[in-house]
Amino acid sequence: MKPVAIFQHTEVGAPGSVPAILNALGIPYRLIPIVDGAPVPARADAFSGLIFMGGYMSVHDPLPWLAQEMSLIRQAADSRIPLSGHCLGSQIMAVALGGEVSRNPRPEIGWQPITVTGAPAAADWLSRPAGHELLTFQWHGDTFHRLPEGAELIATSAHCLHQGFVLDGIHIAMQSHLEMTPALVRLSVARNGQQLDRELAAGNPAVTSRADTLAALDAKTAALHDTLAPLYAHWARNLQP
């Protein structure tokens, strides 16, 4: 099988638990460290699937690699090569495939619940029934406010209407960071904790305190893994050989 490409855009936007999940599924992968200046591959068909991780930048920033990734995403979609996006990665997918991204009403930071929708794809991909709440880790200011044509909304929340979508039965985009490990949560707070503090002081209800964000990380990240591992098992069914 050709490898899955994992695109890393920033230090904090590391793939976290994703490589271990792919290893457990027997799926080879190749990390594309955009953060270190690696070029965006020219051809999507060099890979069995493409995974796009998070980052602090906006999809609307004039960064050449953003436009190149969007072109690669459209190539992949045309060839039915499965796509997956985490946070910024989900927003890049949305714009590349005809959706729109703008500012969320408020930043979401820390541990926040999302709710599984009644869309037919939601229970299949999230392994939970409609109405079930899932714990997620969030750190974003933008969101996809209009989905690509034909996409199914699979998750929502009180602070961000569009939390995830499935497109064409093979592509998955999640606004939250289901890939977090304890070390990656600590790194996120170490690098970006001042934003968390400012939002909390301003009364933002979609932010958890530093203490709550850093508490019980083994149990909380294990819950994320319990959502992400079956999601990637489902996604992997459509990987190209």
Key words describing this protein structure:
241 residues; alpha/beta; single chain
What is the compact description of this entry?
The chain is α/β, with parallel strands linked by helices.
What does this protein structure show overall?
The protein has helices at 18-24, 64-78, 88-96, 120-126, 182-201, 210-214, 217-236; strands spanning 4-8, 29-33, 49-52, 83-86, 100-116, 133-146, 152-156, 164-167, 171-174. It is of the alpha/beta class. Helix 2 crosses helix 3 (88-96). The chain is globular and about 50 Å long. The mean pLDDT is 98.
Average pLDDT: 98
Poorly predicted runs of 5 or more residues: none
Radius of gyration: 16 Å
Terminal Cα span? 5 Å
Number of helices: 7
Structural class: alpha/beta
Strand fraction equals 25-35%
Q: Numbering strands along the chain, what is their spatial order in the largest sheet? A: 2-1-3-4-9-8-7-5-6
Biggest sheet descriptor: 9 strands, mixed
Number of strands: 9
**Helix coverage percent:** 25-40%
**H/E series, N to C?**
EHEEHEHEHEEEEHHH
Shape: globular
